[in-house]
Amino acid sequence: MPEARNEAVAAALTELSERFPHLHWDFRPDPSGGRTELISQWLGEADEDVMLCAFRGAHIDERFHRQDFFFLNFAYGGDYDALSARYNNRITLHCGDCYIGQPYSGYAMKKDGPEETTIVGLLIQKEAFFREYLEPLSADTALLRFFLEPQKNKYADEFIRLTLPDGSPIWQLLDLMLVEYVEKKDDSQKILKALTLSLLLYVARSYHADQEPARPTAAEALCDYIALHSDTVTLRSLASHFGYHPVYLSRLLPRLTGNHFSTLVTEARMRKAALFLDNTQLSIEKIAALLGYKDSSNFYRAYKSYYGTTPRQQA
């Protein structure tokens, strides 16, 4: 990174860390369900879908709270502790780690010297997340379930922890976003939302790689590829990816998995269909398109055959 770029990023971090104590810290009790936890409202401006914040120091002792937005906290420099509601868990985030939290998941940052730490937060409004980013992230079923869970279970309290290598493009994107957010222009939100999409796609790639077994079996590798590309995969493209002839692969799949190619694709699509129907307000036609069906009537027939009910009855 050129020195001028380093200086711009350093200046942005300094500016955001100075703003940090003066953000819109508004903790309100949850008005629904009779719960007493405090809910942190959106910290950015009303017209912002994406915002960045930064803490720098040797001591932070946040009150335990929940927040009404998605967030990704990056241990940009140094270590800190994250207190979560999941199993009363307190984990240490080391430099290079990323903590991803759902709306309403319990959380608090803790740090008590002596070394200084820098924590960068990327915050995304719920509505903007589902509008802008749900579709591009829908390939990985496990990740999709994580992001959709709060729609069904408000207090899901799940989180994701990733360790990102120094050379990850995520850090470069984050640096660009820091400078863009501080040096705000009229089109900054458009740029930030585009950068956020790129960052989230790299996060999805890192998450998938992190979830893969060290040495997946041939059956696992084939099924994982089908699940990730269920909207576009063909027998020919699957064979090409793994270096097989399509005819040989069509005979190999039943031996390895117990199912033919078309059955594996349908199963992968139906698992995602259930997630979309249970957790979103997307139309049947939109869900069909997301799953790779060019005609929604084909989706209806496949769903009815698989689940014994129609998508509309499920929705």
UniProtKB/TrEMBL annotation:
The keyword Transcription regulation applies. Keywords: DNA-binding, Transcription, Transcription regulation. Residues 220-315 form the HTH araC/xylS-type domain. Gene3D superfamilies: Homeodomain-like. It comes from the Bacteria. This is Helix-turn-helix transcriptional regulator. It comes from Megasphaera hominis.
